[in-house]
Amino acid sequence: MKRIMFKKACLFGLAFMLAVAPCACAGDKEGKASDSITIGIQQDIEESLDPHDMLAAGTKEIFFNVFEGLVKSDSEGNIVPAVASSVVKSDDGCTYTFELREGIKFHDGTTVTADDIEYSVNKFADIENHNPSISAFSIVKEVNVKDEKTVEIVLTEPNNEFLSNLATVEAAIIPKNNANPDGIAIGTGPYKYVSRTPMENVKMEKFEDYWGEKASIKNVTFKICTNTDTIPMELKGGNIDMITHLTNAQRLQIDADNFVVYEGTMNLVQALYLNQNFEPFKDVRVRQALCYAIDKKEILTFVSDGRGTPIGSSIYPNFGKYYEDLSNMYPHDTEKAKELLKEAGYPDGFSFTVTAPSNYPQHVDTAQVMAEEFKAIGVTMDISIVDWDTWLSETYVGRNFDATVIGVDAAQLTADSLLSRFESSAGDNFINYSNPEYDKAYSTALKENDDEKQTEDYKQCAKILAEDAANVYVQDLPEFVAMNKRFEGYVFYPMYVMDISKIKPVEQ
Predict the structure, then answer these.
(1) What are phi and psi for residue 451, nearest 5 degrees?
(2) Which of 382, 370, 377, 376 is CA-nearest to residue 349?
(3) 199: alpha, beta or left, given left = phi > 0 and alpha = psi -120 to 50?
(4) Among 25-39, 107-121, 451-465, where is mean pLDDT lowest?
(5) Residues 431-456: pLDDT tens digits?
(6) DSSP-assigned states of every residue in 425-483
(7) Are the beta carbons of 204 and 191 closer than 8 angstroms?
(8) Is the Cβ–Cβ distance between 431 and 472 less than 8 Å?
(9) How far is CA 350 from CA 338, 340, 383, 431, in A?
């Protein structure tokens, strides 16, 4: 048996403050207390509050503050204890034994028990029906309560990334006695869920009995800001104190006297995702032609003043050891693209529709540039802009689309979290990608127990996606966060999460 020491991950990210050009001044909103903050979010949350059923990155991004797993990630991507205080892995790598943290409580005031752990793991791994919250948990064989403080999880095979996957929102520990997890969110995190008003706001409150370092701000309101054009005015008028995922154009409109803009990376894979049930995209030559047709430099310049990071596959730079720069595999070459289309039987090009969510203008802007670039090879790309709920239900879940521009995020810094969706039978394989060579390489990577060899296997998976032009890869977008100068402490994570517990009022 091996007691796991929580080591620092071999990963790094860059975050720094960016000075912005000044514009008209705005004073603090009268009467606003320092123990409250209003944060703008650009989409409403999902109907279900059950963490094991959450799909949308924007929902999981803020409920990171409410739910915790047996372990969790810190701001550097390290896996650290959470609901469990320690874990021991068996020599064969198939059994993990967790010791429950002493006296840890749920938001309803009840103490977390071993039965809650057993219930939660059985629920998110769905051992009986084989429909886990994420595919990584399909290897969970059984959960055993050893005593009132100890729970054992047994796997069908070893997996080096299993512990990291337990740090996701989809692996949250929730109370067994909550009969309505869809409607009542109860976790163990630094904030507890209070209420939601659809299309208006979501409210959370500091959890006074949190086991770890307690949050500084008592009341948090997430205000839904679906009209992205008004966001700078929402900030200036004092309607919101902070917002993430600003566009470059919005960044330039921020009131520098009262707000600071932090710049980092968005930690996602932005691409033109191709539904490979759509006839032209079944041919690799067509997909490669689209890759050659785009000019990534032009897209980055138009979308974010050149601040994005070009990528060439489904791994972004903050993944450290797993990342290999494949961004130049398809250099901009219009003539090469035309030749490939001719070979594939489309000498005069073809037409298709791309779907883009309206609440992410960066993706809409990217689609607009691509549409112009594709004209040079005779391909017509019509743009359909839809609201987020429609995109989620029709495009992502329903798979009713030709192509879509979106960013795919990672809940944890595990290669599996970005690559698993391209396995042909994966439930979240929304582009219907199927490649026996990829399936074999991915299966090999999953089963490898040597970390160095597994890392190379995952790199090979990413290379196959690039060579096969699974999608038209573009960039990891820059992340701009505006926050009122009355607050400080915003910290970037190398994953797509928003940690409110570290924000605090500036001492006067």
Answers:
(1) -60, -45
(2) 377
(3) left
(4) 25-39
(5) 999 999 999 999 999 888 888 999 99
(6) T-TT-TT----HHHHHHHHHHHH--SHHHHHHHHHHHHHHHHHTT-EEEEEE-EEEEEE
(7) yes
(8) no
(9) 12, 13, 14, 19
- Cα 187 to Cα 51: distance, rounded to the nearest angstrom: 9
Residue 169's alpha-carbon distances to 125, 176, 389, 452, 497, in angstroms, are: 13, 17, 20, 27, 10
306-309: long-range pairs with CB below 8 Å, 24+: 307/248, 307/263, 307/478, 308/270, 308/474, 308/475, 308/476, 308/477, 308/478, 309/265, 309/475, 309/476, 309/478
pLDDT tens per residue across span 303-348: 999 999 999 999 999 888 999 999 999 999 999 999 999 999 999 9
* Residue type (1 letter), 289: A
- How far apart (Å, rounded) are the C-alpha atoms in residues 227 and 243? 13
What count of Cα atoms within 13 Å lies in the side-chain half-sphere of residue 462? 29
d(Cα 427, Cα 28) in Å, to the nearest integer? 47
b/e map 440-473, b = 16+ CB within 10 Å: ebbeebbebeeeeebbebbbbbbbbbbbbbbbbb
- Separation between Cα atoms, residue 56 and residue 48, nearest integer Å: 11
Centroid of chain to Cα 89: 28
The C-alpha R_g of the chain, in whole angstroms, comes to 23
d(CA 485, CA 242): 10
Model pLDDT for residues 418-430, shown as the tens digit of each residue: 999 999 999 899 9
| Whole-angstrom distance, CA of residue 82 vs CA of residue 100 | 9
What span, in angstroms and rounded, lies between the C-alpha atoms of 341 and 335?
10
Backbone angles phi, psi at 433, to 5 degrees: -75, 135
Answer yes or no: are the C-beta atoms of 291 and 403 closer than 8 Å. Answer: no
